[in-house]
Amino acid sequence: MRDSQKIKDCLIDDFYNEKKDKNINAENECKEFKGKLNLYQEKLNLLNEDIFEFDINTLSIIEKAECIKKNKKYKREFILFILIAFFILSLYALAILKFGAKFLIISQGIVLIALPWTIIPFSMIRRKESEI
Amino acid sequence: MCLTIKGVNRVLNERELIEEAKSGNKSALNNLLKDNLNILKGYVIKMTGSIYASQDIVQDTMLKAVLNIKKFRPEAKFSTWLIKIATNVYRDYMRKNRNYEVIDETLEDKKQNVEDLAISNYEYKEIMNIILKLPSEKRAAFILKHYYGYKYEEIAQILNCPVGTVRSRIHYAVEFIINELERKEII
Fold first, then answer.
1. Which residue in the set A40, A51, A58 is minimally distant from B34, CB to CB?
2. Least Cα separation, residue B163 to chain A (angstroms)
3. For residues A34 and A15, what is the distance between their CA atoms, to the nearest angstrom?
4. Chain A, chain B: beta-carbon pairs less than 8 Å apart
5. How deeply is B169 buried, as exposed, middle or buried, from its count of CB atoms within 10 A (0-12, 13-18, 19+)?
6. Given this model, what pLDDT does residue B31 score?
7. B6, B110, B175, B182 — which has fewest CB within 10 A?
8. How far apart are CA B34 and CA B37, in angstroms?
């Protein structure tokens, strides 16, 4: 029984061009099983015929993927924005607690004066980069 | 595959198409998907035996492939990578949709004899049913070997299992199919 199974295994490997065992001695069993394998091959070829067609629009899939990528990017950026904002506000709150309300007034003054001078050149550089 | 890059028409091989697709060239990506669509469709149809399930799985597979194109390493063929994704998508699909409708289409009238056509239709459905009776892991290994000629090692990589397991799954599948074909008097 075990030998018979071994022979079948070797014949299947041989049928599929995998490594071959040359010590197969049971000629009759070989012939019978090989015959079955050939018939089976013939019948299974039927499934190679396409009996139906369905359309897949690859371009729409690519566009859908682009949308998903954009949404993921927006989500990531939003979470990053929230985290950074939380971090800055926490630092600000800690500084106010440590240095008092005066710190709030001085820092607001600095921000109001300095922010336009940093944002305007930065946005101009970015605009030029995007134009290129 | 003919593709225009910076105004120059030239034939690109698969590796070049992949590089172009990775760098964001939609046309290259589209061509790559179209080139491999038939292989993917054939595999999924044989795995599911259902037109609707196949359509869903092929679409999901392609979507995942597009989303993860940058992770693709060109050591393997693109079609092999697609089949690997399709196998995972198929598993997820089966978890969510346990009952789905199996193919009830018929072969087209390519043969002259009506009797031959009727026999072929019957045999097609029976063979599909026999393959669908196999457990999905064995079915996948068998389809990849029989219809796509992958080596045991390649199938082991696609299905994430040892080579010995692949070999035994294929042997089981072949013997099961032969026994069923004999039982149904098809061979």
1. A58
2. 12
3. 8
4. 95
5. buried
6. 93
7. B6
8. 5
pLDDT higher for B123 or B1?
B123
- Least trusted range by pLDDT, from A67-76, B2-11, B149-158, B171-180: B2-11
A106-127 mean pLDDT: 88
b/e burial code for range B63-73 (CB count within 10 A of at least 16 → b): bbbbbebeebe
CB contact under 8 A, A64 and B178: no
Distance CA B53, CA B145 (A): 22
pTM reported for the whole predicted model = 0.80
Rounded to a whole number of angstroms, the distance from the CA of B122 to the nearest CA of chain A is 11
For B43-73, what is each residue's pLDDT tens digit?
A: 999 999 888 899 999 999 999 999 999 999 8
The CATH fold assigned to B111-187 is Arc Repressor Mutant, subunit A (1.10.10)
Q: What is the ipTM of this complex?
A: 0.81
A29 inside 8 A of chain B by CB: no
Q: What value, to the nearest 5°, has the Cα angle with vertex B73 and ends B8 and B79?
A: 80
Q: Which residues of B touch A21 (CB under 8 A)?
A: none
In the numeric block, the tokens 């371009």 are attached to A59
| Single-letter code of the amino acid located at A75 | K
